[in-house]
């Protein structure tokens, strides 16, 4: 069953039906657009909410993030930010796969429908024009036939009239003959026009209109299928991001389970325990024995430990003492010193150890820089065309000075740490040992995997100490760039040498 055979006489119905289908596509596109606006607004509100509760740098809350319950809240904010991003993805995909695609397809359908309806109009106009010609020839045949009959009757009447002359009779017969001949021609023209019209009418109703209506049917069915795909895509677009959204929600759940009351209590203890011993019993002062006031005052300080360590700041002894609102903070707090002696013993040890770690890292950097400069000077001495060795002397001297200064500071903090009851000699030895271990090729090969690099360009490697390479060739990175622009690499066959760092792309070790 098809429109061309079953609905051959329902042009107006087909016209309205196809227009209604296009209107539905347009309505669906508007619906999806409004949905995308809702998603975008929702995502924007979520991002603003996350931003509102996010921590600011240097704030008090940022310092509290070492506690698991605070960090879990930050994790939740991050997951919500990712969740908002997925809502934006939904909006973007709906706009691309539904709105834009259907809008473009709708324009094509409108043009296609217009073309088919125009073809139907033209076919109808052609048939109407043929019918007018048929009607005109029919009326002409009818008129001429009446005139011929009239002329024939007049000729018979003249022939029977005794008063009519032979010339009158001949004239009447000639006129009747002419009229009959004209009527015959009109009859033949009418028959020809009728045959032509019937042929065109048959072509119109059995070929032209069925073909056009079948094309409109095919167009409308394609529209329905395309619209159905848009309906399915509406759900699939969100389904595709559901796994990611699920991971965001799982991340929020994990953040909740990561909050540990025991760990946070341990962190609080680790951060703030002073290391002081608890005060001993206060001795009884017997004034009846004549003990003077001075000796009694001195006896108040007999408990060893916290009273002596705290000095004048005796209010620290009482855990529930309140800060005075009238006194200035700088008067109530002890002055900050370089050796952190103003801190309780445990906190002082931590600060000193942290300071030593920082100095150790800085010293290691200087040692790396020093070795890189020495190697660069060695390369320049062997290959003068690559650079002047003397130009490196100021940097080498400055690096040596920095290393000496840092070693002095490290030794100073070590002594303070030992004074505070820590073990500082292990830090210095570990730094020194690391410096030897770092630059021992044999041990480096055993302990750490090599990174790989790929040559981006050809390099001749004509200078001493360098190694040639071809674009695409893969090497093992034996030694990173120390700031001189050269990286030491090794081939699979064991050949080693320096290549320009800018000529290679380094990949992490496998």
TrEMBL record:
Gene3D superfamilies: 6.10.140.470, Arfaptin homology (AH) domain/BAR domain, SH3 Domains. Keywords: Cell membrane, Coiled coil, Cytoplasm, Cytoskeleton, Endocytosis, Lipid-binding, Lysosome, Membrane, SH3 domain. Its main location: membrane. SUPFAM superfamilies: BAR/IMD domain-like (SSF103657), SH3-domain (SSF50044). The keyword Coiled coil applies. PROSITE patterns: F_BAR, REM_1, SH3. The keyword Coiled coil applies. Residues 106-203, 349-383 form a coiled coil. One of its GO terms (molecular function) is lipid binding. It is found in: Cell membrane; Cytoplasm, Cell cortex; Cytoplasm, Cytoskeleton; Lysosome. GO terms for cellular component: cell cortex; cytoskeleton; lysosome; plasma membrane. Residues 1-264 form the F-BAR domain. Residues 427-446 are annotated as: Disordered. GO terms for biological process: endocytosis; signal transduction. Residues 342-419 form the REM-1 domain. Residues 448-509 form the SH3 domain. It holds the Pfam family HR1_TOCA. Belongs to the FNBP1 family. PANTHER family: CDC42-INTERACTING PROTEIN 4, FCH AND DOUBLE SH3 DOMAINS PROTEIN. This is Cdc42-interacting protein 4. It comes from Megalops atlanticus. The lineage of its organism: Eukaryota, Metazoa, Chordata, Craniata, Vertebrata.
């Amino acid at each position: 069953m098809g429109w061309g055979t079953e609905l051959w006489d329902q042009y107006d119905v087909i016209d309205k039906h196809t227009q209604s289908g296009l209107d539905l596509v347009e309505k669906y596109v508007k619906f999806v657009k409004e949905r995308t606006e809702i998603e975008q607004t929702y995502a924007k509100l979520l991002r603003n909410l996350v931003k509102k509760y996010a921590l600011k740098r240097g704030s008090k809350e940022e310092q509290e993030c070492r506690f698991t319950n605070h960090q879990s809240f930050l994790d939740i904010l991050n997951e919500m930010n990712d969740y908002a991003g997925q809502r934006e993805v939904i909006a973007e995909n709906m706009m691309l796969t539904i709105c834009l695609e259907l809008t473009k397809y709708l324009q094509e359908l409108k043009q296609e429908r217009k073309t088919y309806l125009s073809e139907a109009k033209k076919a109808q106009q052609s048939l109407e024009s043929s019918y007018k010609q048929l009607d005109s020839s029919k009326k002409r045949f009818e008129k001429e036939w009446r005139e011929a009959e009239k002329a024939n009757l007049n000729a018979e009447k003249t022939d029977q009239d005794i008063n009519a002359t032979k010339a009158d009779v001949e004239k009447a017969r000639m006129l009747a003959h002419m009229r009959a001949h004209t009527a015959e021609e009109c009859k033949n023209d009418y028959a020809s026009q009728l045959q032509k019209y019937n042929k065109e009418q048959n072509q119109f109703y059995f070929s032209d209109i069925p073909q056009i209506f079948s094309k409109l049917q095919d167009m409308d069915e394609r529209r329905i299928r395309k619209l159905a795909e848009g309906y399915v895509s509406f759900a699939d677009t969100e389904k595709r991001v559901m796994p990611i959204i699920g991971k965001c929600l799982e991340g929020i759940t994990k953040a909740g389970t990561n909050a540990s009351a025991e760990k946070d209590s341990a962190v609080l203890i680790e951060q703030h325990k002073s290391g002081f011993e608890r005060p001993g019993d206060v001795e009884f002062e017997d004034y009846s024995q004549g003990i003077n006031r001075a000796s009694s005052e001195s006896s108040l300080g007999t408990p060893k430990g916290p009273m002596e360590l705290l000095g004048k700041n005796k209010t620290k002894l009482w855990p529930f003492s309140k800060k005075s609102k009238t006194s200035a903070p700088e008067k109530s707090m002890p002055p900050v010193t370089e050796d952190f002696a103003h801190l309780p013993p445990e906190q002082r040890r931590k600060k000193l150890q942290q300071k030593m770690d920082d100095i150790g890292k800085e010293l290691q950097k200087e040692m790396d820089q020093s070795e890189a400069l020495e190697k660069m000077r060695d390369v320049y001495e062997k290959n003068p065309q690559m650079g002047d060795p003397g130009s490196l002397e100021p940097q080498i001297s400055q690096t040596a000075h920095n290393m000496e200064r840092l070693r002095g500071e490290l030794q100073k903090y070590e002594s303070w740490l030992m004074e505070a009851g820590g073990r500082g000699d292990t830090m210095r030895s570990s730094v020194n040992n690391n410096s030897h271990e770092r630059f021992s090729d044999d041990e480096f090969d055993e302990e750490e995997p090599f990174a790989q690099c790929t040559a981006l360009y050809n390099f001749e490697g004509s200078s001493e100490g360098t190694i040639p390479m071809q674009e695409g060739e893969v090497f093992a990175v034996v030694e990173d760039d120390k700031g001189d622009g050269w990286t030491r690499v090794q081939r699979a066959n064991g050949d080693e040498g320096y290549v320009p760092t800018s000529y290679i792309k380094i990949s992490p070790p496998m």
